[in-house]
UniProtKB/TrEMBL annotation:
Organism name: Lentinula detonsa
Lineage per the UniProt record: Eukaryota, Fungi, Dikarya, Basidiomycota, Agaricomycotina
Name of protein: Guanine nucleotide exchange factor
GO CC field: cytoplasm
Annotated InterPro entries: Gua_nucleotide_exch_fac_Ric8 (IPR019318)
Pfam families according to UniProt: Ric8
Annotated region (Disordered), positions in chain: 555-577
GO molecular function: G-protein alpha-subunit binding; guanyl-nucleotide exchange factor activity
UniProt-listed PANTHER family: SYNEMBRYN
Biological processes, Gene Ontology terms: G protein-coupled receptor signaling pathway
This protein's UniProt keywords: Chaperone, Guanine-nucleotide releasing factor
Length: 577
């Protein structure tokens, strides 16, 4: 709107300050599409120039800076016309304003940083300009991050650093390797994470947002630095530099400590903590940190010894009620995986299994079909009120947690055994189909047959495979080859693997290798239903077999040696009609 532009250009150093404030407020209150491209660009340039030269002889005084920067931030939210903010001179001006105003007007200093953050978010190419030697924005914000003491400051600065490190660059090498005041960014981030974590637990403003941005910034460093520091490692999937090891303890503290959220149990910043953790490989030097435990005064059980039979009800309301009640408030039993490390420890294995139980129970309640329309619609409805992107899918949300569990299984034999016996306990009741169970195992097996959740399906298969020592024979014997045939086929295993050398079943009852349920065959191999047949019923069944073999003969299909033997036996024993 040219009227607002004219009103601003008419201002001078002699204009009453309330008039200046009124014009600036009119820019702030204007609707997003009030200004066309040329008008918006003109206002952005004027505001930047006046802020750069603010004094008693300028259109803007120092005390007008906060409102003027808020007006500039409002204009910069629309990409069309706000391109002047991407110029190196503009970014330098905003950095200088943030620094010069910090002591006298921290609100104005914060608005200058928010202008930078919005610009980097809207314009990818502005990030390259920002971290260039001409501007030096990366080092500038890293220095401010070290001094930041509030969640709001940490939120804005971490957002800028996250955007500035979104792509590989020399800045990442500088941040990790060069010391400022005797510390690298890897020394600074853990102290800030611990500071914000206490604020998150106290439910303070901006705390969760600040934690999310800090974790996203950490993820970028973990993702890009190993490849940048050692170009020869780019082909290695699990390469990790020891320079990043200092991040792991603080990331684990966040992962263990963040409280549950409602309605969705898996939301930022917890999701960002998981993303960061899955980028850190399991190395011998880090295993002690991964498996370190902390005492937890509240006992929890991972699985009760008795598993209920599947129920037909499947509603989201039931899952929500269970989640509100805390799902299962049980104590750790002597047979549970948690008991393997002492009385009650809050370690990463317990935390991960606890989260998986809650997440799967919430998103796939009872023994519901994961591909059902009800499940997808329920997820969309809950997602709409969660503040997460509406484009988020269940695959994107849950798969990283399964990947983390898979990596935990790869740590050592004890962790693998704990996860395996939590999913498939030795006392598992196999008297009914495993894919009809309403527990975690049943949900996993149903997901293995999913058509809609392809990534989740693959992640579940990899987790089960890792928990079973990456041995297809053990996996098939525990859950039944029929349930994992598709997964194993994709891994190049085209037929049922032989039984494992050691029987993984604790029960003396025979387990069907295809279904994973108790076999109906007696120990001598004869079907009980055949034993119970009368002679007349046996004759009828023998007639059916004779007809089938007769059709085979006429079709020209050559019978196998075993088929010939059975055929001759049936012929010799068949009673004439």
């Amino acid at each position: 709107m040219t009227d607002i532009l004219r009103s601003y250009t008419d201002l001078s150093s002699s204009s009453p300050r309330f008039q200046v404030a009124a014009v600036l407020q009119s820019i702030i209150n204007a609707l997003p599409l009030t200004f066309d491209q040329s008008t918006r660009a003109a206002l952005v340039r004027l505001l930047l120039r006046d802020l750069r030269t603010s004094s008693s002889k300028s259109r803007l005084f120092h005390k007008d800076a906060a409102l003027a920067l808020l007006a500039l931030k409002t204009l910069g939210r629309i990409p069309v016309g706000s391109e002047p903010l991407t110029e190196a001179s503009s970014l330098r001006t905003l950095m200088e304003l943030s620094s010069s105003l910090y002591k006298d007007d921290r609100n104005a200093s914060s608005e200058a940083l928010k202008c930078i953050a919005n610009t980097l978010l809207l314009y990818d190419y502005a990030r390259v300009t920002f971290i260039s030697k001409e501007v030096g924005g990366g080092e500038f914000c890293a220095s401010l991050l070290e001094k930041a003491t509030t969640s709001e400051q940490l939120f804005t600065l971490s957002r800028i650093m996250f955007l500035a490190t979104a792509s590989p660059s020399s800045l990442i090498l500088t941040l990790v390797e060069d010391k400022r005041h005797g510390r690298t960014i890897i020394d600074v981030i853990p102290t800030k994470i611990d500071m914000v974590l206490s604020s998150v637990l106290a439910n303070k403003a901006f705390a969760r947002d600040a934690m999310s941005e800090l974790l996203k910034f950490s993820f970028n460093l973990l993702l890009h630095y190993p490849k940048a520091s050692s170009p020869s490692s780019r082909g290695q999937q699990d390469f990790q530099s020891s320079n990043l090891d200092g991040l792991l303890p603080s990331l684990l503290r966040v992962y263990r400590s963040l409280p549950r959220t409602f309605p969705i149990p898996l939301v930022p910043p917890l999701t960002h903590a998981i993303h960061a953790l899955v980028t850190i490989p399991i190395t011998h030097s880090l295993i002690s940190l991964w498996l370190s435990t902390t005492r937890n005064s509240t006992s929890r059980q991972l699985r009760s010894s008795h598993t209920p039979r599947p129920r037909s009800s499947s509603t989201l309301d039931r899952a929500l009620n269970v989640f509100t009640a805390g799902r299962r408030s049980l104590s750790i039993s002597s047979n549970s995986p948690a008991s393997m490390v002492g009385n009650s420890h809050r370690d990463i294995v317990v935390r991960t299994m606890d989260l998986l139980e809650i997440v799967f129970s919430f998103h796939f309640p009872s023994n519901s079909n994961p591909d059902s329309r009800e499940i997808r619609e329920a997820f969309k409805n809950v997602l709409a009120g969660s503040g997460m992107s509406t484009d988020t899918s269940l695959d994107e949300l849950v798969s990283p947690l399964l990947l983390l569990c898979t990596r935990i299984c790869m740590m050592d034999h004890t962790s693998r055994k704990r996860v395996r016996e939590w999913i498939i306990p030795p006392s598992l009741d196999r008297s009914y189909p495993l894919d009809e169970r309403d527990d975690f195992l049943g949900r996993c097996i149903r997901l293995l047959g999913s058509v809609y959740h392809t990534r989740l399906k693959a992640s579940v298969g990899e987790m089960l495979y890792a928990a079973c020592d990456c041995d297809p024979s053990i996996l098939s014997s525990l859950v039944g080859y029929g349930h994992v045939a598709g997964f194993l086929f994709n891994k190049g295993i085209l037929s049922a693997p032989p039984p494992p050398s050691t029987d993984p079943h604790s029960s003396q009852r025979v387990v069907n290798p295809i279904t994973g349920t108790y076999d109906t065959m007696a120990q001598n191999g004869m079907n009980n239903s055949i034993v119970e047949m009368t002679e007349e019923e046996k004759e009828i069944e023998m007639d059916k077999l004779f007809v089938l073999f007769d059709r085979l003969d006429r079709s020209g299909a050559p019978p196998t040696n075993q088929g010939k033997a059975v055929h001759s036996t049936v012929k010799s024993k068949r009673t004439p009609k």
